[in-house]
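dude i think i finally got it to work??
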Amino acid sequence: MRILLVEDDLPLARELKASLHHQGYAVDHVDNGKHALLSADGKTSDLVILDLGLPDMDGLDVLKQLKQNAVNVSVLILTARDGVEHKVKGLDLGADDYLAKPFSIEELLARIRVIERKKGTNTSSTIAAKGVVLDVSTNAFTLNEERINLSRREFMIMRILMENLDRIQSKASLETKLYEWGDEVSSNTIEVHVSNLRKKLPQDFIKTIRGVGYVVRAK
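look at this
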């Protein structure tokens, strides 16, 4: 999952970005509403984490405009504002969830996982296919109950494929979800990662759909 973090508190933004990176997420950051609207096009971002207290415009106005523009992206609101009315208004405008500051990173990650489950095919934090098990709550990846060590981006690819069992993922969509602004991506990067993964997995676990992309079958 690729996340657009909209937060003008730079120390908090750095902390959140580091924590999300550690969990395998690709994160782009902007610090105002105007840049958020320009960046959240629904093609590069799967989730917008949106602070309401932005310097140039109210976060609820950003949310409202995103929904008016029919941008197909999930939104998780962060705010220091008290009062149920702000939560109700945000949810009525189309936000998927709402988290009040201060909050723990563990709770934020749990809420992100709920949103991921809604977007994917799995309904729990544990996904299993052909002896391979992925626990997205702990980032544990096992084959026949033995832990497999993966690089950060190998793990991200497996997470995307296993959260979307039987759904073909194109090379372009994988690149979009794995890489942030400014990352250098060579033409065969995804192929190299998939090749390395195949050496650690059962034969034909990751199937290539020629000219389309990759898929992991549930059965």
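The mean pLDDT is 88.
im so relieved honestly
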